[in-house]
Specification:
5-stranded parallel sheet; 3-stranded antiparallel sheet; globular; alpha/beta
Length: 220
């Protein structure tokens, strides 16, 4: 299964991908995580990308495309993958066609006021990238309990330190959301014209939503 997950920042793409990937035995390939790893390692790519990321802007296409192309050639992606954060514009989508066919595009939609609350409450493990959220949401027909670690500030998965990302603030998020709509809305329409888009509106916690997404992807 070769999938793309599209949705605004903090819509849950990474959370769902980490649960659905193992179901199909395919890797979750998140360009954001790849870039943050490069920044943490202090690589040339990381140094170049950091300025864009801190400003809430997109990293140049050629850098992202090169990273994704190399990752898709890895053995674990031969049977499929979930792309999260790529493609982010039409140019990237066209380049992806030269790399691989796509089976479906999951388009995750959520009210923007709830997205803002989610992003301000998001926390991430600095070591392994595991995601947490420190608030409970129950409004507009959406019920999402917070995802809290067993020990405050400590990742359940690896014991790493959990912190808020430097770009998870209201001002930067609004900039990211504006860029997302400008660049990604046309990508959704690009794939909609190909008949690949499957829209999903989360209304509950990930453990309840994951089976629904799988059924949607499999047309059940």
């Amino acid at each position: 299964m070769k999938l793309i997950f599209i949705g605004p920042p903090s819509a849950g793409k990474g959370t769902y991908a980490k649960k659905i990937g193992p179901h199909y035995g395919i890797p979750h390939i998140a360009t954001g995580d790849m870039l943050r790893a490069e920044v943490a390692n202090g690589s040339d790519i990381g140094k170049s990308a950091k300025g864009f990321m801190d400003a809430g802007k997109l990293v140049p296409d050629e850098m992202i495309i090169g990273m994704v192309k190399e990752r898709l050639q890895a053995p674990d992606a031969a049977a499929g993958f979930i792309l999260d954060g790529f493609p982010r514009n039409i140019a990237q989508a066209e380049e992806l066609e030269n790399m691989s066919a796509i089976d479906a595009v999951l388009y995750i939609k959520m009210p923007e006021d709830i997205l803002v609350k989610k992003v301000l409450a998001r926390r991430v493990c600095q070591k392994c990238g595991e995601l947490y959220n420190v608030i409970d949401i129950d409004e507009q027909g959406i019920r999402m309990p917070g995802i809290q670690p067993q020990k405050p500030g400590i990742c359940d998965k690896c014991g790493g330190k959990i912190e808020q990302r430097s770009d998870d603030n209201a001002e930067t998020y609004q900039d990211r959301l504006k860029v997302y709509h400008e660049q990604c809305d046309p990508v959704v329409e690009y794939y909609r014209e190909k008949g690949l888009v499957k829209e999903f509106k989360p209304s509950g916690p990930p453990e309840e939503m994951t089976p629904q997404i799988i059924a949607l992807l499999e047309n059940k």
